[in-house]
Inverse folding.
């Protein structure tokens, strides 16, 4: 199993539908309507996943999106302030999401798609700003990419071959 991926059967997951889009395809007999649902699942304790489901009915698209999100759950490092360890900009397509650490009591200062991901991940104190494209799918994916790239001070110290005390000064 890859680093950061988790077995969803051991977690109590909550889910949130971020976006539902009606998609039409023009065929010989006219237009066929289908639905696309962007779903985020998380346990509020450092595990979060994102999935996209597509189907002819809204409920079926949501179910498929939830299943896809459960298969794609990753583990996110969270510090003692229920925040992220360091500032980072997540990038996906032309969307960029700037995420900054925040002290205890700040709360989640973020837009809708980013808020869904960080709340379900269990982050309680963060400041985030969506930059570039505001396509909900890309903003959610950029947030997830940024969170996956987070490193704890222990990981950074090990990679540099120094102690945590030397790293933090």
């Amino acid at each position: 199993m890859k680093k950061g991926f988790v077995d969803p059967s051991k977690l109590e997951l909550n889910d949130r539908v971020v976006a539902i889009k009606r998609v039409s395809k023009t065929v010989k007999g006219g237009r066929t309507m289908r639905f696309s649902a962007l779903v985020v699942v998380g346990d509020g304790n450092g595990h979060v996943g994102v999935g996209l489901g597509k189907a002819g009915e809204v409920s079926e698209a949501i179910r498929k999106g939830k299943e896809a999100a459960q298969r794609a759950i990753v583990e996110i490092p969270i510090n003692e302030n229920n925040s992220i360890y360091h500032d980072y900009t997540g990038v996906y397509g032309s969307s960029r999401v700037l995420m900054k650490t925040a002290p205890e009591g700040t709360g989640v200062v973020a837009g809708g798609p980013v808020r869904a991901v960080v709340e379900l991940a269990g982050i309680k104190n963060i400041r985030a700003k969506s930059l570039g494209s505001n396509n909900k799918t890309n903003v959610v994916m950029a947030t997830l990419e940024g969170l996956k790239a987070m490193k704890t001070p222990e990981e950074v110290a090990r990679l540099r071959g120094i102690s945590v005390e030397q790293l933090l000064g």
In short: The radius of gyration is 18 Å. The helical segments are 58-71, 112-121, 136-148, 153-160, 164-168. The chain has a mean pLDDT of 91.
